[in-house]
Amino acid sequence: MELRYLTSFVAVAEELHFGRAATRLGMAQPPLSQQIRQLEKELGVPLFERNTRSVRLTSAGESFLDPVRRVLDDLDLAVSAAKSGGRGEYGRVSVGFAGASSHESLPLLTRAVRAAHPGLELVMRGQTYANVALARVADGSLDLGFVRLPVTQPGVAARVIDEEDMVCALPSDHPLALRDAIAISDLADEPFVSFPANAGSTVRDATVRVCGEEGFTPRVVQEAPDSWTILALVAAGVGVTLTLTSCQHIQQTGLVYRPLSGPGHRLQVALAWRPDNPSAALRTVLAIAERALPTLHVDR
User: Fold this and answer.
1) Residue 240: which H helix or E strand, with range?
2) How far, in Å, CA of 133 to CA of 149, rounded?
3) pTM for the complete prediction?
4) What residues have CB less than 8 Å from 80, skipping those under 6 apart?
5) Mean pLDDT score of the chain, rounded to an integer?
6) Which of 49, 109, 113, 205 is the residue whose CA sits 20 to 30 A from 174?
7) HTH lysR-type domain: from which residue to which, for each copy (predicted)?
8) Domains in the chain, ordered, with CATH?
9) What is the DSSP code string of 188-240?
10) What is the DSSP letter of 238?
């Protein structure tokens, strides 16, 4: 089995688009497709389901992806070690992040790592929700994750690096949009747009929690997988939502943000890792994070 086949497989699996994967690899699409077909032939199972509109991993492809990533990571680490020798810090640290939870802190950390140790590579793994990153840190498939509290998984340490206010997003022609601030209780009879209930969204969980503290359950009339879609639906008048200050850069016609009145409407952002992770590169990144990112609280 040729190494280039594995590299091509990971590119297609992450892009879920042969054209984008070919561009990423700096090659034409037909040879890429041939490599994937040859790999599937060698394995004896299909790795992708393809049609004219989409590409998706089969169950065999999903099972194959993480082991292949580890093989490539280990190989790259070996090559880096051979090239770097004793010249200083090197290695790879896989970092999970999701949307607003790392919007400000992630660039600060990546720039600081690059400045301190150019031979140390951060491998970015985008997640749908911060809770997914936390779960992958807990099971060892990620070294480091930008997550939100609470962190309850055994064997995982966390350091809070930021905190954000929850705000209300609502249609600009909504009567509550005339107010300077909105009480949670004012939303008791409002239709909500929110993340799916079973997706592990900390924003959805926080919404249910703060509404419950005011004696009601939010009436969710529409669910969407990301903040951009949720806020587009709010702008269209489907309902209101609770979101975070880091999402206020999303500006759409017909959409306004208002602060919430009263205390306690905050979510904390943390770095999470396993203290038993033997990676020296991870220890270097954590030391850099101590200097580059503020420390608000420690939760172990």
Assistant:
1) none
2) 12
3) 0.60
4) 90, 91, 92, 119, 121
5) 87
6) 205
7) 1-58
8) 1-74 (1.10.10.10), 163-267 (3.40.190.10)
9) TTSEEEE--TTTT-HHHHHHHHHHHHTT---EEEEE-SSHHHHHHHHHTTS-B
10) S
